[in-house]
Design brief:
Elements: E1 2-6, H1 10-21, E2 25-30, H2 34-44, E3 47-49, E4 61-64, H3 71-74, E5 84-87, E6 104-109, E7 125-129, H4 132-145, E8 149-151, H5 154-184, H6 193-202, H7 215-218, H8 221-230, H9 235-249
Parallel strand pairs: 1-2, 1-4, 2-3, 4-5, 5-6, 7-8
Antiparallel strand pairs: 6-7
Length: about 250
């Protein structure tokens, strides 16, 4: 396939690398910022332009890989001549694209993507499109990119996006809170990293609910009280600790 990528951030960069790695061709990078477009275009070995430039209509797929809120902003700039147009957003309906083409859909990478990645991670994709024929087209393309592909409509994709925020963004925020606490209390956060890795690996083949450990699931009130006393000088963390403890004790 020939693919034109609209965007130049983390998702656009990683998707561009993956598309090339799987022997498809990136023919153009379009971005609001011409300097950003040039960086990614030069890396991928293709033409580039900003939104005032002309879209390369030789592309089979136009992939809009921008932040969720920016999709609507870039649409008026694009003249795609009814080619297949896809966005990569988890929380945005596919139907926002119907003003641009008769063939449109979603290619949502359910993964945290950063341009600094040295190796490409495994990326599950959720796909959808406006017709059965278009859906099969997107499904086939996605299966070239990853062994883990599922068809998911707007509602199902949004539900999984919520779950993704919880397991990724919220979990990482807890790491950041714990790191800040360790720095303030002058203890070594790095010594916790093997525990973080083991906790993540443990749920690969087991339900998280069955492997919950810690004083809350044991209803160890004595230890919980000691922890809460220690957190008196960290009121926001203490509140978070109490709420999560209550959630574990009263699922």
């Amino acid at each position: 396939m020939k693919v034109s990528i609209i965007g130049s951030g983390n998702v656009a960069t990683v998707m561009g690398r993956l598309i090339k790695q799987k022997n498809h061709e990136v023919v153009q990078v379009m971005s609001r910022n011409i300097q950003h477009a040039s960086v990614l275009g030069n890396e991928l070995g293709c033409n580039y332009c900003n939104f005032s430039g002309l879209a390369d209509v030789s592309a089979d797929i136009f992939l809009i890989a921008v932040s969720d809120y920016a999709i609507m902003d870039c649409l008026p700039q694009l003249q795609l001549q009814d080619k297949m147009v896809l966005h990569t957003a988890g929380s945005v309906s596919k139907d926002v694209l119907k003003v641009k083409s008769a063939s449109y859909g979603v290619l949502y990478p359910l993964q945290s993507l950063r341009r600094e990645m040295i190796a490409l991670p495994e990326i599950p994709f959720l796909v959808d499109a406006n017709t059965a024929e278009a859906t099969q087209f997107v499904l086939s393309f996605a299966k070239d990119l990853s062994p883990k592909v599922e068809i998911a409509g707007d509602e199902e994709r949004l539900k999984l996006h919520v779950a993704a925020v919880i397991v990724s963004n919220f979990t990482n925020h807890l790491y950041a809170i714990a790191e800040s606490y360790c720095i303030e209390e002058k203890v070594d956060f790095d010594i916790l990293k093997p525990l973080i890795e083991e906790t993540a690996l443990r749920i690969k083949n087991i339900s998280p609910a069955t492997v919950q450990t810690g004083p809350a699931v044991r209803k160890d009130i004595h230890t919980l009280d000691k922890h809460l006393r220690l957190l008196v000088n960290h009121p926001k963390l203490r509140t978070t600790y109490l709420r999560l403890t209550d959630s574990i004790m009263n699922p």
